[in-house]
Amino acid sequence: MQNSLGFNFGSANLENMLQPNESSELKRSHITEMQRILLFDLMTLNPDRTPSKVNLLSDNDHIYAIDHELAFSAIPFLFPARRNPWELNQGDIQQIKGGIISKLIMGRQFIQDPFVSDIRSITPAFWDKALSHLPDEWQWEHWHTVRSFINDIVAHADEFVYNVKRTLL
């Protein structure tokens, strides 16, 4: 953590964890969890989950995503490079194909509907509640841009999930 670019925060101490690698055997539930994490990383523009920096932990029952310090780090530079947030650009595709998650789940069954439902649960009420819980020191001039970016993905959730699925097949 000494080389970290941002603040670090932990909400739970996870003991007896393993770090998945490219040769890890996965349960079906792990594949679904990793697909969900990949979608989350793409929605939050988090490029920080690679074979050399896995940022995943497992207790053999669940996969846990850790380290989101670079999420939304591209927001100030984002537009117009990704005009339609639900469409993947070349950088997104490279991130997927070069990431640890794709190495573990590429070509695996990908059922779209649960993920579309997850994304559609991001409603105006979600934003109101989430932003009301942010401490003052976490206020950021780009929250409006983040919210707009995510809301565009929510409005096109089917297309977004399909684009990711197509890239993984």
Task: Spell out the blueprint of helices and strands.
Elements: H1 28-43, E1 56-58, E2 63-65, H2 75-78, H3 90-98, H4 100-105, H5 113-120, H6 124-132, H7 143-155, H8 157-168
Antiparallel strand pairs: 1-2
Describe the structure.
The structure is a single chain. The chain is mainly alpha-helical and about 170 residues long. The protein has one domain (about 30-65, about 85-169). The chain has eight helices and two strands. The chain has a two-stranded antiparallel ribbon. It is globular. It starts with about 25 loop residues before the first helix and ends with a helix.
Radius of gyration: 16 Å
- Order of SSEs, N→C? HEEHHHHHHH
Annotation, overall tally of beta strands: 2
Instruction: Please bin the fraction of helical residues.
Output: 40-55%
Short overview:
This protein is mainly alpha-helical and 169 residues long.
List keywords for this structure.
46% helix; two-stranded antiparallel ribbon; single chain; 2 strands; 169 residues; mainly alpha
